[in-house]
Amino acid sequence: MPLVIFCGYPSSGKTTRALELQSYLERFLADLAANDGVLPEQFQTPAHPKRNTEIPKMRPKVLLFNDNSFGLVRNEAYQSATEEKKTRGALMSAIERHLTKEDIVICDGMNYIKGFRYQLYCVARALGTPHCAVHCAVSKEQADSWNNAREADSYDPALFEDLCSRFEEPDARNRWDAPLFTVLASDSFTERFGPDIIDAVVLRRPPQPNLSTVVKPSTETNYLYEMDKTTQEIVNALLEAQKGGWFGGDVVVPKTKVKVHISSKGVTLSELRRLRRQFQGLNKMHTQLDMEKVAEGFANYLNTMFSEASGAPRSA
Ligand code: ADP
Ligand code: MG
């Protein structure tokens, strides 16, 4: 079940929102179990079945981890790079131990470092379980004023300043920060985002384990080799088809049902080489081991590139 990653400035309301989300999710799960898996009406979209008996069967718990979970004193936990590393390490190992397909884990740490959020995301991906990010996006002034109003446990002004300046804002274009829910100071958090979070990460089918996180290096090498071969075969088929008189049309290529459309002007070897190189560059990291998918991807890519050149292939 999902990993929810909170981030934001110090005193931006992360723990407040995280606790709110924890009770909201617990209520949702309890209601689901009590109603024999029948989803509340608002979740009954055409994309979902009306009933989900799998989730109640798992008896999911909603676990929340933050600095308090390890008895850390705030101003000490971040006072030096070494202390901070320990703090992050404690959080990371708790997440690794507790995140399972059954339980929801809320990671309410500082999580201000992009690389750390990426590592958290990898833990979820390796398990084949979804994740999302929640950014408590309040202004620094707002966070500062909430920090000053804290009773006993406010961040020291210097530490507050330091943590704010090092904060690396999440970006939904990064796969480790997506889906991203951006909560403003005035938002009523679970009212506004609770249903979306449930929709996106609780009810959604878990994504396939990301091959790039679980595949061994030898297989990755193999992947590049296979991709090279597959795309070369397609290039060869296209060259072969244009031998003799060429009048334009759809060419059948190896390993995929997708045909490649070539206009009557034809396409040159150097153009095909260039597009093949581009495609390989773009897909180097994907480690898609299914070569039929690679062949289909390349055929679609060629069709797109050819049609973008207004129906005629660009001459190289
Ligand atoms: P963080 O976990 O990001 O450090 P907290 O959730 O602990 O932040 O909140 C910091 C302080 O701000 C707390 O004293 C809390 O009561 C207050 N606070 C948080 N969210 C709000 C809000 N939406 N409105 C008013 N005060 C808030
Ligand atoms: Mg907190």
Structure description:
With 316 residues, the protein is an alpha/beta fold. The protein has two domains: 3-201, P-loop containing nucleotide triphosphate hydrolases (Rossmann fold), CATH 3.40.50.300; 216-310, no CATH class. It contains twelve helices and seven strands. It has helices at residues 14-34, 54-58, 74-77, 81-98, 114-127, 140-149, 157-166, 189-202, 211-214, 217-241, 269-283, 291-308, and strands at 3-8, 62-65, 104-107, 131-136, 180-183, 249-251, 260-262. The strands form two sheets. A five-stranded parallel sheet has the order 2-3-1-4-5, sandwiched between helices. The protein has a two-stranded antiparallel ribbon with strand order 6-7. β6 (249-251) and β7 (260-262) form a beta hairpin. Bound molecules: adenosine-5'-diphosphate and magnesium ion. Adenosine-5'-diphosphate is lined by residues 8, 10-16, 136, 146, 149-150, 185.
Could you say what the CATH topology of the largest domain is called?
Rossmann fold
Q: Would you identify the regions where 5 or more consecutive residues have pLDDT less than 50?
A: 210-218, 310-316
| Ions, cofactors and other bound molecules | adenosine-5'-diphosphate, magnesium ion
**Structural class, from secondary structure content?**
alpha/beta
Classify the beta-strand content into a percent band. 5-15%
Overall average residue pLDDT: 88
Number of H- or I-type helical stretches: 12
The N- and C-terminal alpha carbons lie at a distance of 50 Å
